[in-house]
Amino acid sequence: MTAPFLQIRNIRKQYGDVVAVRDVELDIAKGEFMTFLGPSGSGKSTTLYILAGLQEPTSGDILLEGRTLLDTPSHKRNIGMVFQRYTLFPHLSVGENVAFPLRVRRKPKAEIDATVSRALKLVRLEGFADRMPAKMSGGQQQRVALARALAYDPPVLLMDEPLSALDKKLREEIQFEIKRIHQETGVTILYVTHDQEEALRLSDRIAVFSQGEIDQVGTGTELYAEPRTRFVAEFIGDSDFLKGRVERAGDGRADIRLGNGFMVSAVPTHGDAGPGRDVALMLRPERISLFRAEKPRSLAATVRDVTFLGNNTHVQAETETREQVAIRLPFGHESAAGLQSGNAVWLGFDPSSARAFC
Amino acid sequence: MLLDFDRLGWWKWMLVSITALVTLFLLLPIIFIAALSFGSSQWLIFPPPGWTLRWYEDLFADPRWLQSAWVSAKVAGAVTILSVVLGLLASLSLTRGRFRGREALRALFITPMILPVVVLAVALYAFFLRIGLSGTFVGFVLAHLVLALPFSIISISNALEGFDKSIEDAAILCGASPWEARLRVTLPAISHGLFAAAVFSFLVSWDEVVVAIFMASPTLQTLPVKIWTTLRQDLTPVIAAASTLLVLLTVGLMLLSLLVRKALKR
Ligand SMILES: Nc1ncnc2c1ncn2[C@@H]1O[C@H](COP(=O)(O)OP(=O)(O)O)[C@@H](O)[C@H]1O
Ligand SMILES: [Mg+2]
């Protein structure tokens, strides 16, 4: 087996006592679309800036095709980057902006012209070459920045929340463009976002950042289906949490007693699940069934809120132990008819669809 | 708005007259001087009994006046170049650097603006005398540089603070070395600040008289010093002519800078 294309080896970044990035370890394959997903302040940008060479790690190494990048200064790494803020050179036209990296590399004029028009075509901005950046919308500016970053065929393209300043509709439009460009060029992309939907829509794999560490790496489906920490479960998709205590444990599963004595058996667990330990039982809102009449092996609750949202109805219910549970019923579900606040309901779920975090 | 100008009624005219009076008060000496420079009396009588260009002829005929104007221009030119270059370097470290005592350093750079000029002049004179720079062109330039730098640093720092460092980072990622990025991207983006720094620096030196009197020697005089010394010897309307030209050049430069800055900022 050949070495991974890009390796992040034990990267750590400290500012005095603050650890911004804590021993991050990650392999990225050639042509992969990898997203760093996490809340603000979790160390995503810092990791990206270290890859770009705009910051130096406290310790650790970055390898591209087996060779370290750290002894190459930023401007010689040949890496492309699109920033969170608008970074077009204000005194240069769109075409000159895209030409800039090629001029710096002293390419012949004919080649520059051809590359610029190819790059602008890639981001669907043909005919804008003579515009000044100040005359472009935010979305257009970021597309030009993308064209500029791709103009010199970088092996790796870094993107630090490039769409965070745009409104939702425009964001989705450009996400689609980015995905198309990734497919057309085959460039390896490292993309930073705090928006899970964006991450799920774009990525081959997602690395979930929390407090400077990567909690879990996987495809969107893997992260949703098998979150390894409570943080990942909360961050990807919606989730309900109920307090419980381990009664019996073994083989990665546990029997858990909830607050009012209700027993859930053989729940897959993460973390150190010894008997007697407090755990958080995670349920996905769309995997919970809701009954209007009492059922065996189901949890009694009272409806607090019903919101009709077209294809889904969101139900907010409160258990006897005053814990909040969100349930999602598809349109036309029999239990949804006439459901309103104050109704008594019973909640059922398959223990194998639940997860326990210690 | 509470103090809507159009609804002030009677007060409105009051305000207009006060403003007019203040403006007149500020402009009157200049208008006076300009009028006297064209007056035919050699005793600076106002209103002039007649009109003449004689004093301007005298002025341009006297090589000492021309020479002092030339010295002024050379000193101001050198001060401008040094002030912009040093101001840029200082501003880069003051806005970008992360080091202890940065704020103290910034304050230190600004002090010549606050210090009484006479104190500065005496101090520089004493110091330059000791190191053999008094009465030299280099001494002149260095002394005015001290006065001009604060203006330059303030203008350039302001422009740099309004410039997003990420843009420079983007240029570096594009393959430009850090200095290439600063030259090709940062400098053009802050050109309005550099230009303001240049104009301020030039003007500070061009019409400065206090420090200049201390720095001057009989053979090295700037225009304001020449005006001052001539004034003490005899009261001739040639002084009025020289002053008028000085004012004219200053006003012209400020108008030009207004236009250029507008163009640079787009
Ligand atoms: N120059 C700095 N000095 C001190 N702390 C910093 C600096 N830059 C970033 N940090 C800290 O490092 C952590 C990670 O920041 P960052 O990588 O920007 O997070 P993210 O991009 O995920 O929002 C934050 O807690 C931030 O406060
Ligand atoms: Mg960030």
What would you say this structure looks like, in words?
The complex is a heterodimer of chains A (358) and B (266). Chain A is elongated, with a radius of gyration of 25 Å. Chain A is α+β, with helices and mostly antiparallel strands and 358 residues long. Chain A starts with 5 loop residues before the first strand and ends with a strand. The model of chain A has no long low-confidence stretch (mean pLDDT 93). Chain A has 2 domains: 6-232, Rossmann fold (3-Layer(aba) Sandwich), CATH 3.40.50; 241-357, OB fold (Dihydrolipoamide Acetyltransferase, E2P), CATH 2.40.50. A 6-stranded mixed beta sheet of chain A has the order 6-7-8-3-9-10, with helices on both faces. In chain A, 23% of the residues lie in helices and 36% in strands. By secondary structure, chain B is an all-alpha fold. Chain B has 12 helices and no strands. Chain B has 2 domains: 1-37; 53-265, Orthogonal Bundle (MetI-like fold), CATH 1.10.3720. In chain B, helix 3 packs parallel to helix 6 (137-161) and helix 4 (102-114) packs across helix 6. In chain B, 77% of the residues lie in helices and 0% in strands. Chain A binds chain B through residues 52, 54, 73-81, 83-91, 100-101, 104-105, 134, 145, 148-149, 152, and chain B through 164, 166-167, 169-178, 180-181, 184-185, 188-189, 191, 266. The structure holds adenosine-5'-diphosphate and magnesium ion. Adenosine-5'-diphosphate is lined by residues 15, 18, 20, 38, 40-46 of chain A.
Structural topology:
The complex is a heterodimer of chains A (358) and B (266).
Chain A: E1 6-15, E2 18-28, E3 33-37, H1 44-52, E4 59-64, E5 67-68, E6 80-82, H2 94-104, H3 109-122, H4 138-150, E7 156-160, H5 168-185, E8 188-193, H6 196-202, E9 205-210, E10 213-218, H7 220-225, H8 230-235, E11 240-250, E12 253-258, E13 263-270, E14 278-283, E15 289-291, E16 299-309, E17 312-319, E18 324-330, E19 344-348, E20 355-357
Parallel strand pairs in A: 3-8, 3-9, 6-7, 7-8, 13-20
Antiparallel strand pairs in A: 1-2, 1-4, 4-5, 9-10, 11-12, 11-14, 12-13, 14-20, 15-19, 16-17, 16-19, 17-18
Chain B: H1 10-37, H2 54-61, H3 63-96, H4 102-114, H5 117-131, H6 137-161, H7 165-173, H8 178-189, H9 191-206, H10 210-215, H11 223-233, H12 237-265
Magnesium ion binds at residues 44-45, 161 of chain A.
